[in-house]
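Sample entry (113 residues):
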Amino acid sequence: MTQTYYPGREFVQEYMPDQIQHRKQIADALNNTIKGRLNGTMSVTLDALVSTTTIYDARISLSTVPIFSPATANAAAEIAAGGLYFALNAGECVAHHANNSQTDRTFQVVLIG
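Predicted structure, serialized as tokens:
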């Protein structure tokens, strides 16, 4: 499995002695959210010659909804075949898929929740 995590923005600290700097962090985080920069994406390529690919990411929980958007023709065919589904655990998502030799089933993934 090839997984690319795009390191995102730093978390806003809950408390900072410098209130002006703290408000700036909050404003930056809110402005990034308004611009659609939610820090919840990655690129994943399904493993070849197996029927599951495990994606590890601390942002994944039991309530996460992974949204897979195909980035290659073989990834689109995987979606069209209807066999792609997911099992979630804390910190990981197991993608169940066709077992074939294709090495370019690449998806852009959005993690919600």
